[in-house]
Amino acid sequence: MYLTAQRVVSPSSGATGVNAYCYIHGFDWTSPPDSILDALPNEPSSEHIEVPPPGNRVRSYLDIAVPDSASAEELSEAFHAFVAAHREQELPWCGVYKRCAFRLGMEQSLASSWRAEVAALLRAVAMTLGQAGR
Amino acid sequence: MKPETRSELEALFAEGEPMTFYERADAVVRLFADDSVASIIASLPHPFKEEFIEFGRRAYAPDGERLLIKGAPLPEACLAAFRAWLRTYDTFARWSATLDSIARALTEPSSPPSGFVPQAPPDLRLVETMAKAGTLPRQPAAACT
Asked: What is the pTM assigned to this prediction?
């Protein structure tokens, strides 16, 4: 599963919001394949759109690659490890924890409230996942 | 407990065990191979029954409605497909709840401040580059370590 959320701003209208997408890989892995975060597997299986693409400027993003067989606990543990390992480092953050790969970046103006920004991105991903199962 | 008979299934619902929709649905679908689908569905409690029927229609569309109201046991291949769907969506629901929980924790007032603000480039100038989905702003891959 490839989960991605981005806070975007439309250059034309100035509208801002968070767009999120959920893609199903359809295969499993014991460790994330190289460049798993650099390639979309296929069409998004579900999405949450606040500012219609394309052409928006991305102010922040969170990418998550997780095998479809991963449990919620595994995902949670890996994400916490990712944040713990990078929280005092410069952005963007990128890391692999067990079977999960993460990438996070944001503008300097958002970095001072990075917790809130990560929370917003996570909520958008969660909403997209929720829609996928509905 | 995984119910193997109608009475065990009814007991499962009556006990009100804390189970997700998908776990309950899986327990229902298990019986489809041996009993009348319509009869089993008719015995489900409200509001689970309505949600289950809606899920089944989506899972099998456009043939789902026909399969679910036919009254015959579900073919084995359909049963396997249905259960695969349930497993997948149960996973989605659990991931969703987990990520939402992490998001809440990140913004709770009691959450200890790190006292550190991660630095970012003055302007990342990230632009959506994949027009089709409007996604993948990408940092150079070299940024990944």
From this structure: 0.71
The closest of A106, A51, A115, A128 to A83, measured between CA atoms, is A115
Cβ pair B107:A108 closer than 8 A = no
A100 burial type by CB count under 10 A (0-12 exposed, 13-18 middle, 19+ buried):
buried
Question: Which residues in chain B touch residue A53, judged by CB atoms under 8 angstroms apart?
Answer: 128, 131, 133-135
Judged by a CB distance cut-off of 8 A, whether residue B127 touches chain A is yes
Give B83: exposed, middle or buried? Use CB within 10 Å, 0-12, 13-18, 19+: middle
Query: Structure tokens of B130?
Result: 């994949």
Write the DSSP symbol of residue B135: B
Model pLDDT for residues B77-132, shown as the tens digit of each residue: 666 666 766 777 778 888 889 999 999 998 877 655 555 667 766 555 555 654 44
Which B-chain residues 28-87 have CB contacts (< 8 A) with chain A?
A: none
Q: Do B119 and A80 touch (CB under 8 A)?
A: no
The complex's ipTM? 0.84
